[in-house]
Amino acid sequence: MTSPTPAVRWRRRGLTSVALLAVLGGAVVAPAALAAPDPEVPTGSLVTGDTPWHYLDDGSDPSPAPAALRDWTLPAYDDSAWKTAPGSFGAKSGALAPVGPHTPKTLLNHYLDGSAAPTVPTYFFRTTFELEAGVADQVAALQSTVTFDDALIVWINGEEVARYVDGRITDTTNVEYAGDSNGDPLTSTFSAEGDLLRDGTNTIAVSLFQDRASSSDIYFDMSSLTLVKASDPGTPVVAPPTRVILTPTEKPEVSQSFSWLAGDASHTVGQVEIGLATGGATRTVDAYDAGVVNGNPNKHFSVTVTDLAPATAYRYRVGLPGSWSDWYEFRTADPKASDFQFIYYGDAQIGLDTTWPSVVKQAEAQAPRSIGSVHAGDLINTSSNENEWVNWFKGMKDSAVRTNVMAAPGNHEYSGDKLLTAWKAAFEYPHNNPSTSSIGELANLAKGDSEVAQQYRAFFDHWSSFAAETAYYTDYQGVRFITLNATRDTTFLTPAGLPSCTGAECPSSQIGTLWTRFQAAWLDLLLQNSPSKWNVVTFHQPVFSASAGRDEPVLRAEWLPVFQRNDIDLVLMGHDHTYARGYVNTDATETPGLTTGPVYVVSNSGAKHYDLETPEKNVWTNNGATQVLRGQGVTTYQVIDVSKNQLVYRSYLAEKQPDATTDLPVGAVYDTFTVTKSDAGEKWVTEAGVTPPVTEEPEPEKPATVGLGASSVAAGGTLAVSGSGFAAGAELALELRSDPVSLGTVTVATDGTFSRTVTIPAGTPAGTHTLAVILPDGTEVTASLTVTAAAGGGAVVPDESDSGGATDGDLATTGADSMPFVIGAIVLLAAGLGLFALRRRRATAVVETTEAG
């Protein structure tokens, strides 16, 4: 998403001229009388608990043919025959009783026949509020809070302003079952532009849907509706941004991405101001407009700041001049560091205003060195429900502004938002997703002019662009974090204008499998070429399901072989609202509590819980895997400590249900294991109390050295030369300099040493010389040597014409009478000559299967 920054545009509504000045031919027209001041915009709620509503609860259509479908939402509609009562409204099994935590004030007719199922499919509500003349033009926006069960649409003056849990709403009829069975009623806050308001009477219309004919309850309440006054021209409304969040780039040591929600609908531009945390100058970078979603008129903004310094603390704020956020701090990745923590969360989804903030608070307290968090999808329950996003971000508000959030989309991110518009507006992730250039040989399916190839090409091109920010990776201090999109939603995955294709080979007959395979090809290359020692993948639906009635054979067929073949370290998943952790059976060893290969984990970080699968239908054991631990009724978070040679995983109990399968108290470590990996690639996974086998690390490379039997020698005399740290079998040349004189050759022994006695040519001039040991690749190791005058004669005077004699010298035992004088000369030997640490990557055989579309 890289759209240009829009021009500054300030709202001009709500202004009234107080005088008119005209200049005609130098004459000034006298000002007219001052206009009356504008009436005040109401500051209180226009809808309260005493507001009367007209409502229809008998199952009839308020706009039967030939009337238009939504005529009943218009201000002119006659609702005088409807019932009238104040809110809230509801029923529990046909009676006026609590619906979750809410007790309705007015009883709705629950059943079509008044006594038993089927239930009334849809209820209709209308009310009005008044605005004085001149008020509507001063309103920038309106905001309202609604609580409902099960689905809802709201109109203002006939214009739709909000809809929730609308996945089953067809918009072809007024009366239908729709929504999901979500348990307790949901609460959401929506906003709408002030342009749709009018002076005088304004009409609110609401459709409330039952999710099924056998539903046990129904509920609706609009608890508030307030107005936001427009600002003066040229002056932004002072409303700080919300939902400020850091997300990683592909290179987090030198860049950082930021996203936020504007504080007001009049904020049409966004910026980030950034500088060193220690103070000094700052720079301002323009953000791009990421759009508006879910009926909220406030814009989302995102920006990636580059040219940062590694391992450096920065301060920043987001917004625009006149309406900034607070200052926050973050630190870029340190490529030289290996020790840090990160947090792993399962589904938040339910309990976003209660359980979720508590879980995050506990996790942050346990992970003071955290660089960020990975989220295994289903951050919310309904993506089109703006209030759920408000609550999710509230829970993350302290950690998201200073550490990176790496989230995977789950199936509930598609709920009410099949194109993931809310996801893409809220987050800015690396655009290094799978594409035709990164899926290897799979891309060959899209080559050619056949109708099959054309359809493959259409799918691949669509996924290469549209699926950006739902699958991505980042490398952070020795860990490659990979995020996958495990949801196979055909609306999201099918491109517009898909070429026609007939036959079993057409990709349109296997969209879900192909999407999974598309990511598998990309993932395989990412792992094969990973520069990081550790590799961690996060996604939503698990390859090994844990809760009753669930299984993901397509994911298991396409992704499990890639994980096993590349010996990935951690596979972190969600979706099942239970806890499970284990391994593939082929990774077991003869030692209890000691395994090799990937570790697979399913976790749950919200208030929604499912039952575990029965032992007979256990997906793990029925597909060649072992569950080390499984549990239900538990809400957990996980802290992973990363160091050079270990990943230490700890899962903590954040909440427990009455049916929890553990006696451990809240706050206790629920599960733990350690992954140990040597520099040579040997890896072990150990349970608590188990020590990994001692891994023989390669000996460090030893520097090659040369030793001389004496520090000086007379010309014509002999000298013992020795060395160590050389490659066995290498043939070395010995040479005396200044003018090069060969002293012969020597072959290195199997232990990397050599020893040789050489004769210094009699004609060697007195003075300081260099003895060089020359390796086959030309690398040299040298030592300094003093040559004195030949015995019984004067010093040899250097002469340019004296080339000196050359001799291999005689093999003899050195007769030097001084202690050996070792002069170290260190060199790292070239490839093929030194000792090397051979990294061995373990490969596990896995039977690969392919499921037909």
Automatic annotation (TrEMBL):
InterPro entries: Calcineurin-like_PHP, Galactose-bd-like_sf, Metallo-depent_PP-like, PAPs_N, Purple_acid_Pase-like_N
Spans traversing the lipid bilayer: 819-838
Calcineurin-like phosphoesterase domain: residues covered: 374-579
Keyword terms, alphabetized: Membrane, Signal, Transmembrane, Transmembrane helix
Pfam families xrefs: Metallophos, Pur_ac_phosph_N
Domain Purple acid phosphatase N-terminal: start-end pairs: 241-332
Signal peptide stretch: 1-35
SUPFAM superfamilies, sorted: Galactose-binding domain-like, Metallo-dependent phosphatases, Purple acid phosphatase, N-terminal domain
Listed GO MF terms: acid phosphatase activity; metal ion binding
Protein name per the record: LPXTG-motif cell wall anchor domain-containing protein
Organism classification: Bacteria, Bacillati, Actinomycetota, Actinomycetes, Micrococcales
